[in-house]
Write a structure and sequence with these properties.
alpha+beta
Length: about 220
């Protein structure tokens, strides 16, 4: 079975490129997956994380800890063995939806989709041992229904879904490797840290850095 099978199970979809390193490059530059024929946008990103696949799977699978490393997610409530309810908030604006796990392979892969509410998405995360025992390659593949979700996220965060996925994987890597997400100094949720402050200055982004720790 292909690792990207869940995200390919629809008519007219373009093939999702896949490699062990999860890189799709043209002349040394990242090449994003295309928008396919049924109007969904693909997002693909990866990171080498210095932790075992089993540890990373366990951290990702602990859904109620997700607000600690995913931006703008304020609450995740597990509602069943394979279902959960998600809340995203920015300022006084809130978006809620339910999600269902489609495939759960401990230490290897998790695939999911939204099943109601204001978000229309599907995704999967793949955990693969890096060559030479150099950690784990974590690959995130996601698809978004462009109209509804892009509008909701743009309203909430001022950024597109691809940016959010990349930032969230960066936070996940930091949390897994160091036990916390770096920031400029200790502070309450909302302190953006050095990286966040630079982005605010350069791009006008004002999205709070998640405050999760493993302690």
């Amino acid at each position: 079975m292909s690792n990207a099978l869940v995200l390919n199970e629809k008519p007219g979809a373009d093939e999702v490129p896949y490699s062990a390193g999860a890189s799709s490059l043209i002349d040394g530059h990242y090449a994003p997956p295309p928008v396919d024929k049924d109007g969904k946008q693909w997002v693909r990103t990866s990171a080498l994380v210095q932790a075992s696949a089993e540890e990373l799977y366990a951290l990702w699978r602990d859904l109620e800890r997700v607000p600690g490393w995913q931006e703008e997610i304020t609450n995740v409530t597990v509602t069943g063995p394979e279902t959960s309810h998600w809340t995203m908030k920015h300022g006084d604006k809130t978006v809620e939806w339910d999600a269902q796990i489609l495939s759960d392979q401990p230490g290897k892969r998790i695939a999911w989709k939204s099943v109601g509410g204001e978000i229309d998405e599907a995704g999967e995360v793949i955990f693969e041992d890096a060559p030479g025992g150099r950690g784990t390659m974590v690959t995130v593949l996601m698809e978004f229904k462009i109209g509804k979700l892009a509008s909701a996220l743009a309203t909430l965060t001022g950024r597109n879904p691809k940016q959010a996925v990349i930032e969230n994987l960066r936070h996940f890597k930091a949390l897994a490797e160091t036990g916390e997400i770096p920031r400029s100094m200790p502070g309450p949720r909302g302190d953006r840290g050095i990286v966040g402050s630079a982005k605010e200055s350069l791009y006008g982004e004002k999205i709070a850095i998640p405050s999760g720790t493993l302690s």
